Amino acid sequence: MLRVKNLVKKYSDLKVLDNINFRIDDGEVVSIIGPNGSGKTTLLNLISGLDKDFSGVINHTTNAKFGFVFQNSDDSVLPWKTVIENIHLHDKNLDKKRISKILRETNLWKFRNKYPYQLSGGMKQLLAISRAFIHECNFIILDEPFSSLDCQMASLVRQKLMQLYESEKPTVIIVSHNLDDAILLSDRIVVLSNRPGKIKGVVNIGLQRPRMESAVLSNEFLDYKREVAKLI
Amino acid sequence: MKETFRLSKYFAVPAGIFALAVIIYYLGIFNKLLFPNPAIILKEFVLLLTNKEIVSEFGLTFSRVLATVLISALIGIPAGLVLGYNKSLYRSFEFVIDFCRSIPPIALFPLFMLFLGIGDSSKIAYGVWVASLVILVNTSYGVFHLNKAYLKIAQVYNATKLYLFSHIIFPAALPNIFAGLRIGASLSLMAIIVTEMFIGSSNGLGHAILDAQLNYKIPQMYAIILMTGLMGYLINQVLMLIEKRTIHWI
């Protein structure tokens, strides 16, 4: 569980986030959307503990373990390490069966000894997602993970993420500019205002899981899209 | 055919420079004693390659340069990594580093001679002074400008400090480290050659250049100068080869 209370973030005199309050339950998928400069990435950095300079309260489960997937696929992986080395990082004691299972699910097993420059952008994002699941992270944070991918690759990465999520149910927090991605993946969508980012509204997404990509064509989906669009 | 074209492109400029030097020689623009026939210099150069005495001087200078580069790397790289990681520490040292870099190096050699004598130690220590600062600054800049996302990965997955430095910061800074090493190697060669020309020095290519000049063996002097160029070129090529193999992801 993650609880954010009265969160304020400033960069010297510039207020980036103002009085943010929300709660995310274990296993929930929450998307944060908002205009450029609304503090979405800053919020992710604060939640994951990468930035500890803030006022307010961020509480999460005591054994919280974070996995991070960046917007740019080249940022998400270390280019001088092979796929398998990128999975392990410093931890040599990861469960080998789990590594094999997840890498097979994401079609990366046969590339395990390749370097990131031998992979496509989508495969690099899948590698970062796989790493988060293999390390059994209970919070997986994705900062616009599909924005640097073409639509076919984005769809593949989305599908694999949904598959892995359904089998493991970690808490997932996604920053996205794409309403379809946000609605398709999330249980809730938090909409931020212009700088300083404040919560403009929260939309609960009641689409049934597991969700198929074809759900974007349903009337229910379009209703949610209208509801979120009104808030933006 | 393609290979011949590639090679001809590679040698076209040196051949052009050689031809220009021959023309200048035959036009008699400079005193022919001071600017001998380039063909004679080239012949002298080839002869020197089989001259045991000069080859041994070449080896001596090369070993001094190698020792200088290795010691400079051992000092400059770790210090650069630490200072680059801790920007406020770098700021504390910045004035001292920039001040030391601003002192014309040659002005310091008498000081090195005073403390370490005229043997190898003063030459190598002087070379290390010149090269290690360049390697340190380049390494620090490599760390300053590394992709911050890599540091976030390490932080999020709770990597140890040792892993952070050896597996993330060091490889990410490698392009800058190699740039520093290549500049440092060139400066080391320059420093060693200069120190070999000082009074009291009795060997090395620098001494051989001065000796040839004092004895008016002008073609030999030019040929030895070409040898120092060859040494610098070879060191640079070897470093570039190692760089290409090491930084395979770029």
CATH superfamily of the largest domain in chain B: MetI-like
The number of domains of chain B is 2
* Amino- and carboxy-terminal Cα gap of chain B: 30 Å
Count of discrete alpha- or pi-helical segments spanning 4 or more residues of chain A: 8
Provide the residue-averaged pLDDT of chain B.
Answer: 93
H-E string of chain A: EEEHEEHHHHEHEHEEH
Q: Main sheet of chain B, how many strands, which sense, barrel?
A: none
Structural class of chain B: mainly alpha
Major β-sheet annotation of chain A: 6 strands, mixed
Mean pLDDT of chain A: 91
Radius of gyration of chain A (CA) equals 17 Å
What is the CATH top level name of the largest domain in chain B? Mainly Alpha
Q: Provide a count of the helices of chain B.
A: 10
Q: Would you tell me which CATH topology of the largest domain in chain B applies?
A: MetI-like fold
Strand content of chain B is under 5%
Shape of chain A: globular
What oligomeric assembly is this protein in?
A: heterodimer
Q: Note the gap between the termini of chain A.
A: 27 Å
Task: Describe the protein.
The complex is a heterodimer of chains A (232) and B (250). Chain A is of the alpha/beta class and 232 residues long. Chain A has helices spanning 40-47, 73-76, 83-88, 96-105, 121-134, 151-168, 179-185, 219-231; strands at residues 2-11, 14-24, 29-33, 55-60, 66-69, 139-143, 171-175, 188-192, 199-204. Chain A has a six-stranded mixed β-sheet with strand order 5-6-7-3-8-9, with helices on both faces. Chain A is globular and about 45 Å long. The model of chain A has no long low-confidence stretch (mean pLDDT 91). By secondary structure, chain B is an all-alpha fold. Chain B has two domains: 1-35; 37-246, Orthogonal Bundle (MetI-like fold). Chain B contains ten helices and no strands. Chain B starts with a helix and ends with a helix. The model of chain B has no long low-confidence stretch (mean pLDDT 93). At the A-B interface, strand 5 and helix 2 of A face helix 7 and helix 8 of B.
